[in-house]
Amino acid sequence: MDIARPDFVRKKRLRLTLYAASALIALPAITIGISRLKPAAPLVERSSVSIDSVHRGEMLREVRGLGTLVPVDIRWIPAQSSAHVDRIVLQSGARVKRDSVILELSDPQLQHDTVDAEYAYKASQADLANLKVQLASSLMAQKSSAADVESEYQQAKLQAEADKQLSDLGLQPVLTSNKSAVAEQQLAIKRGLVEQQLQIADEAAKAQVAAQEAHLEQQHVLYELKKSQMDSLHVRAGLDGVLSAVSVDVGQQVTPGTNLVRVADPSHLKATIQIPETQAKDLAIGQKASIDTHNGIVPGHVTRIDAAVVNGMVAADVELDGVQPPGARPDLSVDGTIEIERLPDILYVGRPVQGQDNSSVGLFKVVDGGTAAVRVTVQLGRSSVNTIEVLRGLQIGDQVILSDMSAWDAYDRLRLD
């Protein structure tokens, strides 16, 4: 039979109580300890990131942008008057000569004004001819009168000289000699007045002719203007090249100044490159450049930098110095690279995704023989398209990850596989 053992039961209950109390005490401690443990470093595939080494030497600073080829010689031909588009002779893309007719326009009012201007010009020519005849006739009559006065004066002069000689010899009264002298003086005065009148009349005639000639020239200019406007109704290219745009349609009514067609010379092109405004501060006229047309690279130099920023971009014109590669044509998309400067004997590394000029960034440096990477603070300086200057935080030979590592911002250490 079983024998009751009260002390054994009491001891068993005591052990269970101690075990439960120990568990209650240990469980929070274990929970707190686990919560304070640092998470294990995440694993990153080495092949999925870009890694570069820090170098010392010369770094070429460049900026790069996308752009298009545009003709250096572009001519927009505007409408000279209000007109109606009757016919489009040539379409966009056609090769044109200087005198090639592209559009035919019509303007009945201009035709009427041209006829009026022509007749006004011819009437002014006739008026000038008539005025010259009238003035010549008037001057001829005045010259004839002046000749008569001159003749009378010469006769009076001879008579006065003869009467004086006779009076001196006592063969004629002195009174007669004096009368002859007075007559000579009067005719001399009349002769002077007639000469002055003749001179004034001649100057007046010249002034009238000059005024009529000015009026005639005015009518001639107006007539030539109308003729030029009439001729402009046949819209011509004006230069040898390619018709790059026709901006009107048949039947359209255009006003003076409306751009009708655009003609460009495709044999002389330049590149207009769009540079981000953050990289455009160091651009300067004359800097070397290279233009990639995707069918060849052409050297060039910067000739113009836009003063304004448009949509975060600054436009720079690059004149091509080399031979244009095959397929180069207006509006062709190109890549442009402009050389800013050469920096000798500096530390540099490949440009990180988030690396900007004169900034401080956190980069992952490869350590432990390439099996891990730790975050370090790096001070960056001047940048180029693919490289950037290292001021502090790295040494020659250090390897850093250049890829976007924002997904691991919460970690200071990574494992590389």
Fold and architecture overview:
With 417 residues, the protein is an alpha+beta fold. The chain contains 3 helices and 21 strands. The protein has helices spanning 6-35, 108-168, 174-231; strands at 43-44, 51-53, 55-71, 74-78, 83-88, 95-96, 101-106, 234-236, 241-246, 253-254, 259-264, 269-276, 288-292, 297-305, 313-320, 333-350, 360-367, 372-383, 387-392, 399-401, 413-416. The strands form 4 sheets. Strands 3-12-15-14-13-16 form a 6-stranded antiparallel beta barrel. Strands 4-11-9-6 form a 4-stranded antiparallel beta sheet, with no helix packed on it. The chain has a 4-stranded antiparallel beta sheet with strand order 8-7-5-10, with no helix packed on it. Helix 2 (108-168) packs antiparallel against helix 3 (174-231). The radius of gyration is 51 Å and the shape is elongated. It starts with 5 loop residues before the first helix and ends with a strand. The model has no long low-confidence stretch (mean pLDDT 86).
